[in-house]
Every structure is written in C-alpha cells, then in structure tokens.
Amino acid sequence: xxxxxxxxxxxxxxxxxxxxxxxxxxxxxxxxxxxxxxxxxxxxxxxxxxxxxxxxxxxxxxxxxxxxxxxxxxxxxxxxxxxxxxxxxxxxxxxxxxxxxxxxxxxxxxxxxxxxxxxxxxxxxxxxxxxxxxxxxxxxxxxx
Amino acid sequence: xxxxxxxxxxxxxxxxxxxxxxxxxxxxxxxxxxxxxxxxxxxxxxxxxxxxxxxxxxxxxxxxxxxxxxxxxxxxxxxxxxxxxxxxxxxxxxxxxxxxxxxxxxxxxxxxxxxxxxxxxxxxxxxxxxxxxxxxxxxxxxxx
Amino acid sequence: xxxxxxxxxxxxxxxxxxxxxxxxxxxxxxxxxxxxxxxxxxxxxxxxxxxxxxxxxxxxxxxxxxxxxxxxxxxxxxxxxxxxxxxxxxxxxxxxxxxxxxxxxxxxxxxxxxxxxxxxxxxxxxxxxxxxxxxxxxxxxxxx
Amino acid sequence: xxxxxxxxxxxxxxxxxxxxxxxxxxxxxxxxxxxxxxxxxxxxxxxxxxxxxxxxxxxxxxxxxxxxxxxxxxxxxxxxxxxxxxxxxxxxxxxxxxxxxxxxxxxxxxxxxxxxxxxxxxxxxxxxxxxxxxxxxxxxxxxx
Amino acid sequence: xxxxxxxxxxxxxxxxxxxxxxxxxxxxxxxxxxxxxxxxxxxxxxxxxxxxxxxxxxxxxxxxxxxxxxxxxxxxxxxxxxxxxxxxxxxxxxxxxxxxxxxxxxxxxxxxxxxxxxxxxxxxxxxxxxxxxxxxxxxxxxxx
Amino acid sequence: xxxxxxxxxxxxxxxxxxxxxxxxxxxxxxxxxxxxxxxxxxxxxxxxxxxxxxxxxxxxxxxxxxxxxxxxxxxxxxxxxxxxxxxxxxxxxxxxxxxxxxxxxxxxxxxxxxxxxxxxxxxxxxxxxxxxxxxxxxxxxxxx
Lengths: 144, 144, 144, 144, 144, 144
Known about the structure:
Six copies of one chain form a homohexamer. Chain A has helices at 23-30, 63-78, 83-86, 99-115, and strands spanning 2-14, 39-51, 81-82, 121-130, 133-137. Chain A is an alpha+beta fold. Chain A has one domain (2-137): 6-pyruvoyl tetrahydropterin synthase/QueD (Tetrahydropterin Synthase, Chain A). A five-stranded mixed beta sheet of chain A has the order 3-1-2-4-5. The radius of gyration of chain A is 17 Å and the shape is elongated. Strand 5 (133-137) of chain A pairs antiparallel with strand 1 of chain C.
C-alpha cells in the first residue's frame, strides 16, 4: 500500500458567526473571526489517496487526473469565493467554515470521485488555514 | 549601514472592482478577483529598516518596538479585516487593494512612525499575497 | 474524528553530555553537541489534538485556548532557556534534551492540560530541531 | 515508541516510457514526462525510524549514523544520477521511477541497514518529487 | 516605482561538460555534475517587473498576462526538458546551463516581451537551482 | 554582472548582556534575551558574490569552493558554539552577537577570502535569526 499526496491551494473569505447568539457571545467565542465583513486565507489542501502502484505505469493514480478531480470537486467551489456565502455546505449559517469543517467537507466532496477511480481510495485530507494551523480527517477510519 | 527586516502576517479579504465599469469589463480585467462576495489571503509583510547598529546594544532598532509599530500601524487596520470595506485608504472604491497598492499603503503607514525612532529609517516594504506573488516598494528612493 | 494541529516555536540552548563518561567518550558519542558551552536551535513544536468538532462552533478545541495552553505548559519553560540548566525534566543531567526526549517531555506537559478540555485528547507531538530532523510521539498509543 | 525522522535531498533525472507501447500511447499516459531526453527534480527523502530512546543517550538511533546510512544506501545511487539509466532497480525499463516506486525502492534499500541497528526499525519513507507531490510507504505494515 | 514579482517553477535535466577538455579535467572542474547521463532540478524562477501601478487597476502589470509571458517565453522551452539537449541557447555545448547562465538566458527571453507591455520593464531575474543556491541578474543595470 | 548566493546554516547559543548595566537595565533593554544561561537559534546565512560568469565554466565562482570558504571562515567558528563565549569577535563582552552584528562579522570574515578568488567579490550577507527576523550588510557599498 502506497499513499500518494497532491497539494493544492485556494484563496477564500470566511467569518465565524452564530445567528442564535448575541453579538457579544459571538465576539467572545470567535474573537476577531466574528467580523462579519469577513477576512480570508490562502488555504493549502493535501489530498492523500491509497492504493497499489499499477505494475506498468507505476502510478497509484494519475496525478493529472487527481489534479483535475481536486479542481472540479473542491477548488471550483472554494477558490476565490466567500465560503459562508457561496459554498453550499456552509451557506445560510448551516455550518461554520472552520478548518475542521473544511477538511470534512473536502473529504465528502472528494471521496466519491476518488473511489470511482478503481482500486485507489481516498485516505486522508489535510487542510492548512495558515502555516501554523491545520486539520486532518480520514473519514470512517478515524485514526491517523 | 545595516538593513534589518521583521516579517509579520495578516489575514484579510479583498476584491477588485471598478464602479465606473460594467460587470463585463470588471470580469475581463479582474477575472475571479472581481467576485464582490470577496476572497482572501494570508498576507506576509516584510518591513526593512536601515541604520547603523547602536554600539552598545548592537541594534539598528529594537525588534520588539518594531513589532509593536507594525502591529499598531498596519496589522490593527488590516488583520482579520475586509480591505475594501474597512481600511480607510481602500474604502469606498478610492483605491484597489492590489499587492502593489498594499505595499505603498503599508509604507505610508509605517514611514512616519519608523522615522521617529531617531537614526533608523524605513528602507523597503515587501508584501506577499501568496508565496508566488509579491510587491516591493522603497518610497522616494525608487530603485531596489 | 478530526485531528487539529497548532504549531509553535521556541528558541533554546542545549548540549549532550553524560557525567559518567570521560570527555573522550562524550565527544565520540555526541560529536559537536558535546560542547558544554552549549549551542542552540529554533525548535518547532506541533501539537495535535483529536476529537469531534463541536456542532455549533465547528471547533475540536478553541485554537486560542490551545495557544495559551502551549504557551503556559511548554513555551514558558523552554523558550529563551537553556534546556540542560533550566528545564526541570532535563536539569542536573537527569535526562538529555534530545529531540526524542523533548517530544516525550512536551507530551507529558501537555497531556493533562489538553485532557481537561473535555472531549478532545492529545493525539500527537512533533518536534523539529532543524528543518531536517524531527521526532514524533503519541503516548500510550504508540503507533503513528 | 518514538518516531525519528531525518530528511535528505537528491537531484536526479528521469522519464516515463513503456517500451511495449507506441509513442502515442506513451505520450497519452505520461504527457510531458514521456520526453526521453529526460527532465529532473530535487527530490526530498524523509526516513522515519521507530524505537525507544536509549536511556543514556536519549537517541532512538544516532542521527549521524542514520545520515551515513541514507548517504550510502540511497544517495550514492540516486543523487546526481539518471534514475532510468543508472539506478539498478529502474534500469533497462524494469520499473518506472515514479514517486511511488522511488518510495518503495528507498524502503527496500534502507530497511535491512536500519534493522541492523538493533532495536530501532524502519517505520516510514516519504519522498517528495516537488513541494506539491509526495508518496509514503510503510512496508508490510501498510497503513499510515 | 513598484517592483512586482511572480514566481514559477520548472523541472529540467542538465549536466556540465566541456568538449574541449579531457574526462579527467571535466570531472575535476564539475564533480558529480559532469555525469553525462544528466541529473535534474526543480528550478524556481522569480521574475520582477518595475513600474508605476495603473491608477485605475492598481496593477504594475496584469499578473495573469505575466504568468502567460513566463509560460510562453521560458517554461515552454525549459520545463520537462533536458537543457543541454533541447534549449537552443545551451544546445550543442554552446553554453553551460549553470544557474548563472540560466538567469541571464531567462532575462534575454523575457526582457523584450515584458518591455512590450508599455510602461513596465523587466527589473530582476532570480533563479534557484536548489533552496540553497540561487543567481540574480539585472541586465544592463548591473547592480542589485 | 551576476549575483550568486549560497545558503548555509549554523546552530549557536547567545545572550544579550551589558556588564556596565544593572540586571534591571539589562532586562529592560533585552527582555528574555538577557537570560545569561543563554538560548539559541538555527541561523541561516546567505552569502552573495558578484562577478561575471566564466565564459568556459559558466561559474561566477565554484560553488564547492564557496561552500568550503563559508565552512572554514564562518561555520567552523560559529556552528555548535556559544557566540558570546567562543567567537573571538563577540567574546569577553566586546560586541553583542545581535543579528546585525553577526551579519557584519560574517562579512568581515568572508570578504578577504572571497576577494582572493580573482574577479568575483563579496556583495551581500544576509543572516536570518528566525524565519521572521533577518539582517543584510553590503560592506562599504552601503545601499541594498
């Protein structure tokens, strides 16, 4: 079993705000992230797939194909977007676009498309919000 | 003459839009950056001051003081903010918050405060929008 | 289960020396690190906590809280310190402050404080001594 | 159990080409990598060993020894080499030097030498082809 | 005057060899780089243009246009290529593809195209061969 | 004129202390850096030489030679050392080993050796104390 990772970046806006709370409570819980004018990040997304290298090509998956899948399933929805306003899974206050939730959402977006590839499967998602903060998710498998 | 640089980061939203233009022309000029819902970046700011090291302390300027100046003059206005909506120099469509204009604006914010320090002077501002794009400004001196 | 990581840095001095050995044997075992005048590093510490994101905030833990815990439990003891002389777990030759032992010591310092947070638990510590050398520790769980 | 990693780099040429295929099929499968004049990369290799720190030295393994093992077992064969022409495991079209296969080959080169060290064992190989693409291998153990 | 930089990467093979010299002299002058099977690098190219930001767009040059110029003038000739065999300025032993000469060659390729842009001019080229080695060139202007 | 840079790293201890001052004044001026037990850093040194590439080799200087010069003139004195206690220019409180003073001292150590090389000359020294703090020095030439 080999684990192959492709990294991509996207630039997006977001804010943290719970409509059910007062402004004070939002400020207390979310600090400067509660500014509803939004702020933004250069996010880095690492997509790891697991599988056996093909005996002829030596590829677990074709990296060009994986790049296109990431572009189509994640970047087209998140890059140069306001996550709270434009990404369906976060819109209308459904879910806050924290680093944790972005990692889960990227997993959910990528898992069916990567599984289609026959043999390989999605193994791990890592999302960096800044160089100092990142979240990892492995789906049902749980453990790192 | 020694050149001493301190790096800082801020996370902000922005978009590019000219009210005097049609939506088509904005899209043509600014591409995905014309999305008025905004997107954002982790900006890196490098502030370089020039001077002679103090013979006793060995400092061109006190780096803790320089950190506080950057925090007060730039980060308090830009970090976790929407540059088009909240930074006075960019608000109300006065000026687009491009990497180039952010570098000039940061110079204008920092130059008086750094000059106050006696001896040292602001020498160069570098602003990274992403790891692949950055702008430098040296004020009146022009040349790199 | 989501794994959330916060990175921090500290600058410290250390040396490797075993009082029970001759100078020759220390030099042989530890090379340039046996210089008792000490040398130092900018260490990078990555603290990973595991848990479910809170359904309202989307946080596994509050990252500001985690930053304060790291500051209080680790950085206050290690940053701008001489590890052999000032950190209790390494003082008086008890234990050598190798990258491996610093990772275990940081785990022992952080594990009770992070467990207090209710729900989340400490999952992994990674310590970089330089960009080319790092150690990871996961406590009782053993495996990466 | 502690996991200790040492990073090394090597610069090498390679290309992807299957002699059993037409030029068209090679171009379709491998794109620009099918150029038989070759292209090259600065590869980064991360070698992780697992073990208990020695109670006296605090080392899982001696990092200088590990550096020498990596130099002797991997870098002497790959650094400043053409992988398809000079590395025995890839020569004569036996196996394509993809990131995945380089990770497995580095494991096979390092595993016996590291196991000789008594106590510690090879735990994980990570190979970066560029900063955006990397493969991991853990031998028989399979899972990350 | 603002200096705007765009970074790009390319992966290429090269070797150092002077046909007028014996194998021994080549080995002495060029060490492992004299291996005519070639080795390769991930090169990083930084292209800096100088000019005044347009008062309406805030751009010194359009970064998408600059990306296309770099792609057309440099990357199409160097990326996934063997520099000694495929780049006309280095082919047939005319010139060795050292970091220094690649910086000059990239300048010569880019300078006319960037000058066409009206107003802005090419100001500086920086080429990294590895993270530890880079060359800068400023054309006629000479000084950094 | 081409500018060629070679990067090197060294790990050292230091502290800031002025014997002519009280402990209070030292603490006020130098904060945590006044801890006389010392702390340390992984310093990065960038050495830039200027010259014309040799028409045959394409080298401004031989990079292996430059590596040896840096090793002999700077790293042998600073790496795995306590700068205040072991580097002659800083010993006995003569001069504080600030980033600024280390840049000047490295220039003074390297300038005669590099000038010996015939043709090329030392052009710029950059010293990083951390990734966020660095100093540059260009000798008599002053300006960046």
